[in-house]
Amino acid sequence: MDRAYKLFEEQQLARGIDLKQVHEKLKSIRIETPSWGYVNQGTRFKTFEKMGMPRNTYEKMEDAAQVHKFTGICPAVALHIPWDKVEDYTNLKEHAGSLGISMGAINPNLFQENEYMLGSVCNIDSKIRRKATEHLLECVDIAKTVGSDVLSLWFADGTNYPGQGPIRQRVQWMYECLKETYDALTPNMRMLIEYKFYEPAFYHTDLADWGMAFNMANKLGKQAEVLVDTGHHAQGTNIEHIVAYLIGEKKLGGFHFNSRKYGDDDLIVGSVNPYELFLIFYQILDAAADQDPAIQTTANNIAYMIDQSHNIEDKIPAMIRSVLNVQTQYAKALLVNLAEVRAAQEKQDVLGAEQAVREAFEMDVTPLLRAVREEMGVPCDPMSAYLQSGYGISILSRG
Ligand code: PSV
Ligand code: MN
Ligand code: MN
């Protein structure tokens, strides 16, 4: 055991932290990576062409497998259909399996085709709504084939101008499409509903915030839950409050993690706002320790996914960086002494409570993460191990 870890252990024992539990939690967290994070991306001004990009979904799986190989905590990849459309999904599943990974959330894409310019499930034209519903149903089938239990929905539907669409009716149309889709789920499947306050629609978006997604999920039933994409909020929104509230209602299903400075910037997770990420995990871990088993279950069943796009940086290292940043903030949140926070709250000790939370954020968890990675049999420094592996150079032959 190295000296740094020995000191860390002594420090945490003195603070009353159960390090065995911390290790177990760090070993069991799973973070899904998105297939669309491995390909050329850009801004609305330019998509930059990079060398070595995956030429198909099979090669995206190969790149995603690298992230899992070096971190040990990313065994699933989210698919976006039709971006990831293949002839034979069973074959894709087998290919992924041979690489040691599996298929995660299935994301229908209802914003790519010309017909959806004025909306998909909220379109005033019932034929277009039918087409959208058929695509949702196709995605449920794909999920069943590849063994995924999550259908993750985001709708670009909205309007750009006042009067452009019948706002109340559009929500009802969406509900009808989603109800048909919901009814096609098997009992083990979940439907996650993501919200976003603007973009691409600039006047109104049909599911603009967590309350609208929550309401939709409630109407649909137990298997529908809310997905929080950290980039989809107005400046200053208290995301950890939304997280705590949704867990309290047993309706938080998953996350799309990314970082933002202004809008939906989709930057590397935790690059701009690590404290926010830490505070999100603090709320989740506090809920996981709740006396109500249903709250515990919700907190323990959250699907953690990354949703970032890389405009200028190398894809695989950027994804590894995001995963490591999530892991670091999760590790720090595991060091919050919840009993101490609670005692300060009972005493109405404002500064004491804030100190008990912040103290964990200020800890250096490097020795802890190195020790956990050693136990997991992955490199202590996944980023430099990946960079030295030569994989980034080997894929340049793809062109
Ligand atoms: C939309 O901004 C979003 O966050 C949704 O999750 C999409 O599926 C994803 O980005 C990719 O466009
Ligand atoms: Mn998202
Ligand atoms: Mn987004």
Automatic annotation (TrEMBL):
Coiled coil stretches, renumbered: none
Organism taxonomic ancestry: Bacteria, Bacillati, Bacillota, Bacilli, Bacillales
Main enzyme class: isomerase
Any Pfam family hit: AP_endonuc_2
Gene Ontology molecular functions: L-rhamnose isomerase activity; metal ion binding
Annotated Xylose isomerase-like TIM barrel domain residues: 87-265
Top-level taxon: Bacteria
PANTHER family per the UniProt record, alphabetical: L-RHAMNOSE ISOMERASE (PTHR30268:SF0)
EC assignment: 5.3.1.14
Keyword vocabulary terms for this entry: Isomerase, Manganese, Metal-binding
InterPro entries named among the record's database cross-references: L-rhamnose_isomerase, Rhamnose_iso-rel, Xyl_isomerase-like_sf, Xyl_isomerase-like_TIM-brl
GO biological-process terms attached to the record: L-lyxose metabolic process; rhamnose catabolic process
GN (gene name): rhaI
Protein name: L-rhamnose isomerase
